[in-house]
């Protein structure tokens, strides 16, 4: 029989980390005021980490004590301290670190070639922190595709984009996508976009990488087309040219035919005239489902702020059945009406778009925190009305750190003062109570002047924030809540 005393072994090695005797490696991390120095044993680092084994092999002792000094200014001290404890003790306690730190730890573990750790953390994020990943989707997407591995996170992101491509293609960060990220999207057979739209975005991305190209296409030289073709050499073969309508080929692709191989262009012309005759170019299969073929309710439902778990919990609150719904048995659909980052952040935009819509949820993401703040209005928003609006079914809520654990729900208690439809719709958007949850901007942009507010509660049961400070938002969305058809 074999007895394994791994807990005691881990404890002893963890204590060795704090023993400064015989330490012969100094590791300097972080920058400026956050800079911190750690000591370690070369034997431990070599056998526990292939990355540090290579670093130590290439590092020459350079102080009086014959220590090897490794400098890593791009590694945050807080994250490296966790990594070092893992190296010595083999333990990571995700319960005591926030989600952003866990994510940063995953990225660093991958960079430092701790494959077992990065894989474990990667799966933990997908299985337990999916709402956070969705809430910070663009940030996550850009960072994971800079890594050599993390394939599960890459697939998690691409599965979302395939169904909801607008989250990336219509984002302000689209043109800054890493090439490998764009290529991975274009390879998807289930990308829910028309092929002509995909072509438009490929051209947009390619030209953005070459800001010196003339703005007007008629001024382009042959050298300009060669430059664009070189930039898009990994992307162009992934466009499904033979599944683009003839009119779109003539209007959209022909102006850029110089970036295509001559054989492809000649084959397309032959295919147009004699579709049954064989051609030399590879004909990729059509995408499985085009966006235009999707049921209307599926298009643009995805939220950049809330997850399916959030919508299930909010649905339970609407029916006053706490925690009775899950993402699988949610009886409601959340249909996107407005997204600030797409439609604009002016207060009047809210009233113009949401006018006449009843049973709506407004959700915001607070700048500087991971908070999600929102409210439910069972009545129709009406830009012609002014003053107090009566209802006993409205409520406000918040999710600290964006997580569904320990949310705050606050139901209306003074139904005659449930909602305030301001006469100044150029200044105020949705207002629950007086100031219990109010969206306001004096410069026609909710993201700019920190006029949004969640004040002490009089008309609702409780405060949904721990502070009365005014705030700006990163984004906000409004959904119409609709009962699913049976």
Automatic annotation (TrEMBL):
Where does the record place the TLDc domain? 304-482
Q: Name one Pfam family in it.
A: BTB
Q: Which domain of life is it from?
A: Eukaryota
Q: Where is the BTB domain?
A: 23-96
Q: Which residues form the signal peptide?
A: none
InterPro entries named among the record's database cross-references:
BACK, BTB-POZ/Galectin-3-binding, BTB/POZ_dom, SKP1/BTB/POZ_sf, TLDc_dom
Its protein name is: BTB domain-containing protein
